[in-house]
Inverse folding.
């Protein structure tokens, strides 16, 4: 009896260890960014056809600074390396993470506080490997696991552009991570597992447009950093590539071709308009971090690159998630649909209906349409609440935009109006609470 | 050159497409009855009717109006609802400083056209987008009801 | 404020001057922008101008030169009624002209300057305007009596006609006007017995009502002199800051942008229309030198006020037994109000045409002569080289008692060829404005046998008066800041009031509807409720017992309480707590009591359900006008109580437009009842008192509902969640 029990215990322990190892292996050994595409991966030199890297043909003869400016925009360096109201690229933007706050560094060529003393090799090592001069490991909030795909030539063009900027003296702020997250050497372990650590390899069986799209999406544009869910180890879960993630409290939605939860029903021009202008009529308006990505990055890309990005996005495997398909037009009578959300209706009628209309169809511009929009059909209502708090739409002279209402409306009111909006114009009524809104407000 | 129909008259205006209708009315055509209050569709002072719908003209690009007819405070008296609202506003002495009242009257006229016998909730829903700093709300509500009763 | 109206303007020299102006065609009167009223009748010359206010033409047309400005308070109508009553003219027969700038002729008898504000117009002009009408009438009667060779006492007037009943003769005023101008004005013309008033005390239709319903009413922002360009501006977001550098490359590329004007403290973009100017402004890259106020914050400003409160104040009242905070048995509390913007619906604007030796201005202002002086200073001209076209005001609330918008517009116009309309965006209007300051009140009292026997009130706040009307600032006491503190209605035994002048660093402050009493009524009425609780008495009964010597105050209190159903149960829905609260005040020469009824949700959300106000404002000119002003004043106060707050961070105002500087909308409106108490006393002000009653009434009602005494405004709902505070 005793022997049997012991053997059973050993078997059980073995199973547990094996299962643990399998789970660990599953979490640690993730598919590479282009593995889904199958086909033959070749080196850039061996790829037949126009190079998928570098700048588009419109800029083929441009000077290095112009090429660098284009690639810097494509990599959207400015969004993260600029504090609110601060000088572009001088850093200082806070990223609030669960274990502390990280401040982006100054990447202007100031010798003391910026990267003015960095050599080409220093810069390449930082961008490709996440290791700064002196061997300091960078946190993967800096998306080197994506940038690692960019060619040396492209990375150095970015460096040339950054070094052409006026140096700004602004000392970097220390991050506030607590133990063990303040142990930067741990990032070396992370990088060893989760940084692909190699340059882009085109897929020979795919056309130049697809490969160009792949280079931009997986490399410079680093879409997966927000749109791909994270594993336990905070790596991009490439098994669910682009199935939706998070960015500074905002939901970065499913951008796979899934018919209900993704963008499978979006037409090519809709996806392209969304990227280039931040708005796909009747689909979505870019807000929050995506609004920044559009204004600072995608809107500066030439049309052929937008088409390439769209082509690639449409080719990734569809991943079905639990986001419901957007609802159709709202019922004319709002009385029964939102019983219990009466305060939300009050805020809506005073502050919202002027632009969005009682039908949710938008009064003045298609941007203001609520019905069918992804955020309104997100049962978490996180993005709706964030748009109410922080505003939405282009911060461009001459274009209508939505102001943020955080200053004058309470968490209760914003939760109520968010729940009213999802109930009346979306697929599922949300139940966001004042506490949820308070958290989003603090982010 | 943009063609635009206001109160039944077609005007040719030479402005950029993105110019809000408000400034075309006020600064280009000299029709100053429509007022500027906030510029972000939060106050309603600039309300006009475009194709019968109350619209904040500070947020509507003139290029988006197309051939939809525009009616302003200068022309609303020619509509049955507008005339009733204007009369009720006089009878009840609604206006104080009067600056927001063009927008209030336009919003009320649109409400009565759609909902001839509005409830208090209907009035809240239609009029809450129109701010009055003098605080004439008590009379605005009464004015809408009075206009509705003059069927 | 306790000031007496000065005697009506009279005297030969002034009359001669005026007559000369009128006949010489120099009278700079401007047709008031009121649609049909604005049509100037040039056909018949003025032949009778007995004083600064009345013109009668040979065809009988009567014109009132209007010294006060219309900003919604109905003063055009009220002033016209005063004159038409004594002159025996039908209201519709009087045409209005805005008075030209002249403190000597048109100075508000209370302020001595040509200003409309402080709820003073009817108080100031009740007698002078009636005397003007009566004097003119007497001269017309003399002229008729002389022609008919009869006793003037045997003549009567009615509807613009003089009659001699005995002979059956009659003549219209127009035919008598020329002769009347040679009559001697009576030094003290008798006024009508109020019992015989035709107009006064009876509701009249507002003279401006039609134009305000059909888009023809003209405000300053509607001025369109030929060839006018439109400019919009950005001043430094930190008060007192300067421009360091402006890159206008992109702005100049905007279609319709004509010019970028960079001055020391602001930059303006001039365009063909507001849109071009606004788009251009958005495209400017401006580097500011933020100056010494760049670190201001709401917290630093508040801390400075609290520090100031520790200083000894200037004694305003010091009678009887004293009381000090901290002494045994002394009840103490402090109350604070935030910074506020005025946010009138018509954003700040001023149109200027500056030419060599002349400056023409189109504006809606509460202060004609101050505009004139400021424009002259900014343009380097003499005041008489400034012509002002005053307009209707799209709300004033005190903001248009200031002339910063004139100064900026004239300085911009100095760089523009031709007329330029400078229009502030709403963001500029909220963020680069002048503000209602923070104020604080520190109160202490001692009770004996359930009644106060000693009272001390220290008022801490800036002196707007010291800057705005220096002659009225004497002895270190701001008579506005202590209004409502030094003269509160209750018998409280020993009575001590101090004033600590504290100017908030860097923040330009100015008057705001309700002025000083906003602070003092809020604190005194909140503190009275506190004392009632300490005395374990009902807030109504507690007040009544202290008002035995103040029958008018007691009467409005009792009237409001009766209409509000004080003491009767209130219905409450599940998940809410309900209560009533009282305010009583005796400021602006009027007696008001407001009783608020609130429902506070378990989550702390406050809904004001009902406001009942009883008013005794003495003799009433236009009763519906009074009710209208009280209704509006209550809403203005409600916006302050529920939402009003301007905050500073890094020297900048954090609010920018109506989405974050919130005001009450129609769907937040309580039921409002205004009850006029008949009175034969001298008229009181009615523009502001409604506003000042709301904050204490609502705060006291919230206490009744929740047991939480709010001592700061606006209402902080997080303090009111059920179980959220013990």
């Amino acid at each position: 009896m005793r022997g049997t029990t012991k053997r059973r215990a050993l078997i059980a322990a073995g199973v547990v260890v094996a299962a643990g190892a399998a789970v660990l292996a599953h979490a640690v050994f993730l598919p590479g960014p282009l593995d889904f595409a199958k086909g033959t991966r070749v080196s850039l030199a061996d790829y037949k056809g126009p190079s998928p890297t570098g700048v588009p043909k419109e800029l083929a003869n441009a000077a290095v600074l112009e090429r660098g400016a284009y690639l810097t925009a494509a990599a959207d360096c400015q969004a993260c390396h600029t504090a609110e109201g601060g000088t572009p690229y001088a850093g200082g933007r806070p990223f609030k993470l669960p274990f502390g706050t990280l401040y982006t560094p100054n990447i202007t060529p100031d010798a003391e506080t910026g990267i003015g003393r960095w050599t080409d090799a220093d810069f390449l090592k930082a961008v490709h490997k996440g290791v700064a001069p002196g061997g300091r490991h960078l946190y993967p909030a800096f998306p080197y696991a994506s940038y690692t795909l960019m060619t040396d030539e492209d990375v150095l063009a970015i460096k040339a552009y950054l070094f052409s900027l006026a140096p700004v003296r602004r000392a970097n702020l220390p991050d506030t991570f607590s133990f063990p997250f303040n142990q930067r050497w741990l990032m070396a372990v992370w990088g060893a597992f989760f940084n692909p650590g190699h340059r882009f390899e085109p897929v020979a069986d795919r056309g130049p447009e697809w490969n160009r799209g792949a280079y931009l999406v997986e490399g410079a544009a680093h879409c997966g950093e927000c749109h791909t869910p994270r594993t336990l180890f905070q790596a991009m879960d490439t098994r669910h590539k682009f199935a939706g993630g998070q960015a500074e409290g905002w939901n970065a939605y499913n951008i796979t071709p899934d018919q209900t939860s993704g963008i499978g029903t979006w037409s090519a021009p809709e996806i392209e308009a969304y990227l280039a202008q931040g708005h796909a009529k009747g689909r979505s308006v870019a807000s929050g971090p995506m609004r920044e990505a559009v204004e600072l990055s995608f809107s500066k890309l030439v049309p052929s690159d937008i088409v390439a990005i769209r082509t690639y996005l449409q080719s990734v495997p569809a991943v079905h998630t639990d986001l419901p398909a957007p609802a159709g037009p709202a019922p004319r009578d709002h009385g029964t649909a939102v019983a219990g959300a009466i305060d939300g209706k009050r805020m809506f009628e005073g502050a919202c209906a002027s632009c969005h209309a009682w039908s949710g169809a938008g009064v003045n511009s298609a941007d203001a349409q609520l019905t069918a929009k992804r955020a309104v059909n997100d049962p978490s209502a996180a993005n709706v609440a964030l748009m109410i708090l922080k505003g939405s739409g282009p911060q461009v002279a001459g274009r209508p935009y939505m102001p943020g209402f955080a200053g004058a409306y309470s968490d209760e009111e914003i939760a109520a109006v968010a729940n009213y909006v999802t109930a009346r114009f979306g697929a599922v009524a949300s139940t966001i609470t004042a506490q949820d809104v308070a958290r989003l407000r603090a982010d | 050159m943009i063609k635009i129909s206001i109160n039944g008259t077609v005007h040719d205006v030479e402005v950029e497409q993105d110019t809000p209708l408000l400034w075309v009315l006020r600064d280009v055509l000299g029709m100053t009855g429509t007022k500027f209050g906030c510029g972000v569709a939060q106050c309603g002072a600039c309300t006009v009717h475009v194709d019968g719908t109350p619209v904040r003209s500070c947020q509507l690009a003139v290029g988006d109006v197309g051939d939809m007819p525009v009616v302003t405070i200068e022309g609303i008296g020619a509509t049955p609802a507008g005339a009733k609202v204007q009369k009720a506003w006089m009878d009840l002495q609604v206006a104080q400083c009067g600056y927001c009242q063009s927008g209030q009257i336009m919003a009320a006229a649109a409400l009565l056209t759609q909902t001839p016998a509005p409830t208090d909730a209907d009035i809240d829903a239609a009029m809450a987008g129109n701010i009055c700093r003098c605080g004439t709300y008590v009379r605005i509500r009464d004015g809408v009801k009075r206009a509705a009763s003059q069927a | 404020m306790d000031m007496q109206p000065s005697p009506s303007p009279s005297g030969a020299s002034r009359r001669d001057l005026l007559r000369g102006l009128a006949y010489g065609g120099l009278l700079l009167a401007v047709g008031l922008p009121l649609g049909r009223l604005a049509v100037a009748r040039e056909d018949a010359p003025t032949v009778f101008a007995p004083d600064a206010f009345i013109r009668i033409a040979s065809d009988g047309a009567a014109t009132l030169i209007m010294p006060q400005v219309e900003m919604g308070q109905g003063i055009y109508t009220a002033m016209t009624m005063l004159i038409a009553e004594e002159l025996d003219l039908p209201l519709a027969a009087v045409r209005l002209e805005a008075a030209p700038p002249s403190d000597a002729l048109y100075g508000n008898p209370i302020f001595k300057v040509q200003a409309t504000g402080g709820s003073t117009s009817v108080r100031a002009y009740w007698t002078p305007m009636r005397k003007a009408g009566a004097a003119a009438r007497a001269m017309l009667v003399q002229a008729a009596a002389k022609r008919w060779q009869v006793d003037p006492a045997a003549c009567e007037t009615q509807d613009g006609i003089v009659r001699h009943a005995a002979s059956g003769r009659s003549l219209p005023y127009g035919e008598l006007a020329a002769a009347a101008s040679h009559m001697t004005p009576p030094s003290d013309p008798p006024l009508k017995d109020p019992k015989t008033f035709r107009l006064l005390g009876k509701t009249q239709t507002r003279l401006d009502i039609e134009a305000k319903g059909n888009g023809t009413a003209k405000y300053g922002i509607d001025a369109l002199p030929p060839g006018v360009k439109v400019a919009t501006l950005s001043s430094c977001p930190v008060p007192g800051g300067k421009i360091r550098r402006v890159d206008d490359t992109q702005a100049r590329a905007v279609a319709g942008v004509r010019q970028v004007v960079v001055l020391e403290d602001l930059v303006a973009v001039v365009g063909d229309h507001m849109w071009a100017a606004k788009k251009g402004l958005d495209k400017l890259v401006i580097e500011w030198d933020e100056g010494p106020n760049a670190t201001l914050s709401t917290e630093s400003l508040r801390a400075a006020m609290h520090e100031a409160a520790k200083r000894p104040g200037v004694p305003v009242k010091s009678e009887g037994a004293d009381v000090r905070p901290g002494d045994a048995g002394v009840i103490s509390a402090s109350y604070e109000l935030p910074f506020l913007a005025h946010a009138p619906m018509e954003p700040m604007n001023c149109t200027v045409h500056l030419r060599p030796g002349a400056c023409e201005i189109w504006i809606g202002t509460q202060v004609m002569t101050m505009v004139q002086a400021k424009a002259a200073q900014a343009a380097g001209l003499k005041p008489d080289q400034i012509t002002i076209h005053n307009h209707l005001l799209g709300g004033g609330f005190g903001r248009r008692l200031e002339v910063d918008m004139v100064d900026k517009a004239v300085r911009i116009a100095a760089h523009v060829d031709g007329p330029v309309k400078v229009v502030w965006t709403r963001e500029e209007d909220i963020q680069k404005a002048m503000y209602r300051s923070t104020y604080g009140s520190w109160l202490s009292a001692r009770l004996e046998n359930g009644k106060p026997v000693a009272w001390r009130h220290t008022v801490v706040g800036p002196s707007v008066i010291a800057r705005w009307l220096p002659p009225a600032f004497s002895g270190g006491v701001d008579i506005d800041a202590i209004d409502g503190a030094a003269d509160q209605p209750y018998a409280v035994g020993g009575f001590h009031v101090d004033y600590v002048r504290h100017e908030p660093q860097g923040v330009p402050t100015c008057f705001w509807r309700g002025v000083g009493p906003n602070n003092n009524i809020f604190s005194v009425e909140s503190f009275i409720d506190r004392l009632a609780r300490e005395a374990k008495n009902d807030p109504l009964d507690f007040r009544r017992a202290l008002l035995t010597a103040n029958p008018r105050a007691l009467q409005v209190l009792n009237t409001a309480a009766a209409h509000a159903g004080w003491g009767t149960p209130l219905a409450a829905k599940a998940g809410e707590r309900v209560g009533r609260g009282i305010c009583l005040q005796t400021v602006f020469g009027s007696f008001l009591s407001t009783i608020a009824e609130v429902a506070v949700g378990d989550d702390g959300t406050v809904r004001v359900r009902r406001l009942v106000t009883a008013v005794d404002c003495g003799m009433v000119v236009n009763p519906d006008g009074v009710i209208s002003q009280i209704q509006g004043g209550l809403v203005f106060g409600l916006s302050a109580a529920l939402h009003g707050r301007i905050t500073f961070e890094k020297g900048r105002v954090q609010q920018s437009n109506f989405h974050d500087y919130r005001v009450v909308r129609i769907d937040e409106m309580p039921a409002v009842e205004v009850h006029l108490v008949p009175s034969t006393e001298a008229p009181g002000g009615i523009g502001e008192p409604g506003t000042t009653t709301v904050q204490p009434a609502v705060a006291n009602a919230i206490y009744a509902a929740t047991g939480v005494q709010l001592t700061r405004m606006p209402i902080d709902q997080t303090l009111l969640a059920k179980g959220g505070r013990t």
Observations:
- The first helix of chain C runs from residue 12 to 23.
- Residues 1-41 of chain C have pLDDT under 50 and may be disordered.
- The radius of gyration of chain C is 27 Å.
